[in-house]
Amino acid sequence: MKLYPRIAIVILMLSMSYSCNREDQKQQVHEGSQESHWSYEGETSPEHWAELEKDSDCSGQRQSPVNIIDIHTVEDQNQESTIELFYSPKTILNKVRNNGHSIQFLFDKGDSIAYNQTNFNLVQIHFHEPSEHTINGIRYPIEIHLVHQSQEKNYTVLSIFGFEGEQSQTMEDMESFLPLQKGQEKEIERAFDLSRLFPANKSYYAYEGSLTTPPCTENVQWVIFKEPIVVSLEEVLKLKDNMPLENYRNEQPLNDRLVYLHKM
């Protein structure tokens, strides 16, 4: 009879342990799905991001991308906005990753920009096919995003459009690390010169917006080069084969924002 209280305590402890383990499993499943509960199609497509991302800015008033209409831009005739590129051929490409949404190239510190006298370090570059931003309603075959972050955790993203034509040696070099399956990454650890990627004419549009993927954070300064670069059809298709089909977000309302044109 004296054993009964002890048995009851043991049963109670086992029951509590089982309950805790079940909660832990639920939490792990929830956390494991955080990176994949949005996509570019179906019920998790961009039209539903605001519903899926309750604590995000995806329904904000300063979202990206946008359609840029030339006649509506404001020319910066006094050159009040400045950008300087500090790209070194010695910067190390750390790894290449397929995160299920795009192909990312991640870099060690080395390449940076100075935008309006604030320094931003290059973090990574990735691709959208077709482009997310449009110019006068025209969507390019590819848009390259070079993501830079400041010490204060704000972003400046440089955007480069590409259209089909001759082969780009820089794109060829980047695509030499493909294919990558979803969730796969490769360690690279070699110097990579991104300075060759930029167009010769560095005139650009600029506006304040957001990240174009969840959580759509509205702390991004966009610098969009007006002149596209030339890439081959084969390069466009090779990237497309490694990414979701049409991984772009549709244009967002400009609202009260201005788009500036800076001629170089």
Automatic annotation (TrEMBL):
The keyword Cell cycle does not apply. Its EC number is 4.2.1.1. InterPro entries: Alpha_CA_prokaryot-like (IPR041891), CA_dom (IPR001148), CA_dom_sf (IPR036398), Carbonic_anhydrase_a-class (IPR023561), Carbonic_anhydrase_a-class_CS (IPR018338). It catalyses: hydrogencarbonate + H(+) = CO2 + H2O. Residues 25-46 are annotated as: Disordered. Its cofactor is Zn(2+). Residues 36-263 form the Alpha-carbonic anhydrase domain. Keywords: Lyase, Metal-binding, Zinc. Reversible hydration of carbon dioxide. Belongs to the alpha-carbonic anhydrase family. This is Carbonic anhydrase. It comes from Lutimonas vermicola.
